[in-house]
Every structure is written in structure tokens, then in C-alpha cells.
Amino acid sequence: MPSNLILFNKPFRVLSQFSAEGDKSTLAQYIEIPEFYPAGRLDFDSEGLLLLTDQGALQHVIASPDFKLPKTYWVQVEGEISPEALEKLRQGVELKDGLTKPAQAERMAEPDVWERVPPVRHRENIPTSWLSLQIREGKNRQVRRMTAAVGFPTLRLIRYAIGPYTLENTKVGQWNYIEPTDNLLKEVNQFEEQRKRKAASPNRRSTGQKRQPGSKENKISHGEGVARRNTRPKSTSRPHRK
Q1: Structural domains of the chain sorted by starting position, each given as residue range(s) with its CATH number in brackets
Q2: Can you give the pTM of this predicted structure?
Q3: Residue spans with biased composition (Basic residues) (predicted)?
């Protein structure tokens, strides 16, 4: 039986969705399997690892920041990334929507990856460098905003890993069935148990529970509304307020 989890190496300028949007490329051009949907997103202008599944609980656990699956990015930036900039990334960067959580940030050699189409546009006399950045949250376009905030704009962004899953042995534009790890299945089981407990909470009325005629709890008397309305007649001499 095929697995319920797919690992896809998303190319540059491909939407992380199956539905058409103008003339942009979508996942439908690469994956022809019904009922599988992305667990999280990867920006149109970013590349790399995207996980898809046909199970709602598994999708939630992978995509939700609450479960803290770390995401590792390989980032090409404009300029020679400095030790000071790396330290700022490690401590957290102040963005418009708040301070980011501390990240793992290290300079790295240029990785042996596929050529991007179209290629990154280089400026003469301005070098570029690469860093590995691991985060555990998912603010909108977070990595790009983080590197820009420390003075090194992102030129190319590749998501290399989500938790234990990496791009190893998966070429750009290709996908593979993968098996959920034991830890991931444990998280899914815990999430489903929590959802069942909430559904069975005594504070929630069962949809099959009927109100008993004459019940004091359910009956609203003539003198009692939800806001305990005053039932005394209004004076006709009092002016009406608008």
C-alpha cells in the first residue's frame, strides 16, 4: 500500500496548490494523485521541500507551529554574511509583526544543488554567500524578512528539511512516497486523542440531547429573558430616546 505522505521538491515559481491561478504553474503539473494536499505552504518564489498528505490530522501536525517541527533553509544572500548578522539571527530579529524566536544560523559553503530557472541575477562587484537557517515558526515570508532585517537580502531560498525529512535523493520537480516517523505518528495520535476529549467534554451539549419539557434549566419564563428584561409598562410621559 502506498504511504499517506508525499515528499515533493518544488521548483521555483510554482504555487503550493492544485487550483489554477492565472497562468502560474501549480502542483497539478507535477502530482496527479487525488485527495493529497500540502501540509503547510512554500512561497511561489521559494524552492525545495513540500510535504503532502491525504490525512487531516497528519496535515495539521506537520503544518502547525504548535508541534514545533523545525524547518531548515539554505539561503543565498547578497553580500558576505557577517558573524554579527548570524548572531542577530540566532538571538531573534524584530519584524513588523513581532520578535522572531531564536534560530539556528550558520554560514555554509555553496551547496551542490540544481540550477534555478531563471538563474539568480548577480550584480557585478557584489559577492553572495550562503547560510543554513533553521526556524520553528511560520511567519509570512519570515526567512526573507529576517535576512533583510540584518542587512543581507535573500536572493535564493531553498527549504532543505522539515523535521527528519530532507531533499536528499529527490530531484527538483520530483516526488516520492515516504513513511511517517514514529515520533510523527505519536504526535498525530496525541492530537486525535485531544480532539476526542474536547468533543466529549461535559461542557458541550450533545447534538442528540433533547431539552426536557418543563425543565427549569431550559425554560424561559414570561418575566425572564436572556438579559432579564424589565416587564413593567413604560410611562407614556417619558420622552423616547433614540
Answers
A1: 1-68+163-190 (3.30.70.580), 70-160 (3.30.70.1560)
A2: 0.81
A3: 229-242
